[in-house]
Amino acid sequence: MTQWVEDPTGGRNRGPQAIVRAWVEILVRPRRFFRTGVAPGDQAPGMVFGVLVTLIEVATRMATGGLDVGTVAGGPLLTELLALVLVGLFVAPAVLHLTAALQTVILMLFVPGRGGISETVQVIGYAVAPCLLAGLPFPALRAVCTVYGAVLLVVGIREVHETSYLRAAVVGALPATLVFGYGFGGFGALVATVPGLASAVPW
User: Fold this and answer.
1) What's this model's pTM, rounded to 2 decimal places?
2) Other Cβ atoms closer than 10 A to 183
3) In which domain, by residue range, is 155 found?
4) How many domains does the chain fold into?
């Protein structure tokens, strides 16, 4: 599903072990991973990675009672399975591609010599890695996961699109807000963790 960052010229390895290894590498060596683990014109591994992380996050919230999808398909369990199918096949891929399209437009305005849209899809897909744990019922943990995800997005833009950290932070601010602040609930988690933020920032 993704590339072994120690041997970027050897092709992309498949299977659960490769995905787990990529997840660890992104968290502990993000600059190295983004330099070697993102291949031009090959967006599928990053997209699959991002979708899997999102599915696990959504499934965890369902299992812990943090997300109630109601009962519309013959029973609660069947409804939840249907919701996961919809997220995995339609919602997550669509959001990833729309966010990548938005990010590409912003890059076109501010970053000359940028990489292509496939690289941007991969950067966003891999940047959500910390959110694998965001579905657990701990607002502080969700806040940390989403903030770290936003940081990884900036690092990925910096490495893949070869720009400065300041410019990467500027061009990545809106996509990070949409994906991590709202999509993964980072703003709500920050407010729950630091109650004073609710009156200080109009979220």
Assistant:
1) 0.89
2) 21
3) 2-200
4) 1
